[in-house]
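From the shared-data thread, chain only:
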Amino acid sequence: MAELKERVQKLLDDSVNPAVSMHGGYVELLDVKESTVYIRMSGGCQGCGMADVTLKQGIERLIFEEIPEVTEILDVTDHAAGGNPYYTPGKM
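Structure, as tokens:
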């Protein structure tokens, strides 16, 4: 399991976080249990009106393609607490 967690962390560090950092965001790996990855979005991603799109079309797609052992990704972010979202729901 540690090897799977390391692979997910490397993918977040090398591909996901450089992309979301352009909008002031960051994706943190909290845990990997069996084939489920638990993440938290922060910075510009927390509370962003596009966070679900980033998760579904960006993060999930990339992880599922690169690490097929992962079957589920759960975002445990409290998006209502976001203090500086990149896109507020009203801006879209």
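The two ends are 39 Å apart (CA to CA).
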